[in-house]
Amino acid sequence: MTTYQGKCHCGNTEWEAKLEKDQQGHILCHCDTCKYLSGSTFTLNQIIPKANLNIKKGESQLKRYTYYGESGKPVHCYFCPNCTSHVYHHQLVMGDDTIILRTGMLEQGLKEFKPAAEIFGKAKLPWEKEVAQTFDTLPPS
Ligand SMILES: [Zn+2]
Ligand SMILES: [Zn+2]
After folding, report:
1. I want to staple 134 with a disulfide (CB 3.0 to 4.6 A). Which of 40, 44, 118, 123 is the partner?
2. Which element (helix H / strand E) includes 32?
3. How confident is the model at residue 126 (pLDDT cuts 50, 70, 90)?
4. pLDDT per residue over 43-62, tens digit each?
5. Distance 68 CA to ligand 2 centre (A)
6. Among all ligands shown, which has an atom nearest to the Cα of 10?
7. What is the domain-level CATH number for residue 12?
8. pLDDT computed for residue 70 by the predictor
9. Residue 139 lies in a domain
10. What are the pLDDT digits (tens) for 58-75?
């Protein structure tokens, strides 16, 4: 288990995340929601236990945006109200103790992590090259 430091763009929010060896990589999500929320073609994520994320600064100021996922259950997105960086998402369908962390904002993670998988490949744009094993939606559990 390694601890990674993260911060939002403006620096009002700071956090650290403990990641197991097999979580030290980016899961690229190509879903249409990620396109809108990031303004790009995919986001960088990892699924971790909620207890392994420690928001050291700015947690009480975080704002929440909620949308409904493909499961019909809510997805809560927690973001810095000043700069709008998304710190983590909580998909209720995955239970109370599991969150989706944005690995693109972990200082060492962004430099060191490799693509581990690509999800929602069905929504991937045709000019994007495959960089990891790609699943149409989610990997079979
Ligand atoms: Zn910020
Ligand atoms: Zn997505």
Report:
1. 118
2. helix 32-38
3. very high
4. 999 999 999 999 999 999 99
5. 12
6. 1
7. 2.170.150.70
8. 81
9. no
10. 999 999 999 998 889 999
Ligand nearest to the CA of 41: 2
> How many domains are contained in the chain?
1
Backbone angles phi, psi at 110, to 5 degrees: -60, -35
pLDDT of 140 = 85
**Residue 132 placed within a domain:** no
This model's pTM is above 0.85? yes
Cβ density class 60-89: b for 16+ within 10 Å, e for less? eebeeeeeeeeeeeebebbbbeeeebbbbb
Q: How far is the CA of 5 from the centre of ligand 2 (A)?
A: 23
Angle at 59 between CA 7 and CA 67, to 5 degrees: 90
Residue 79 Cα to ligand 1 midpoint, Å, equals: 8
DSSP 104: G
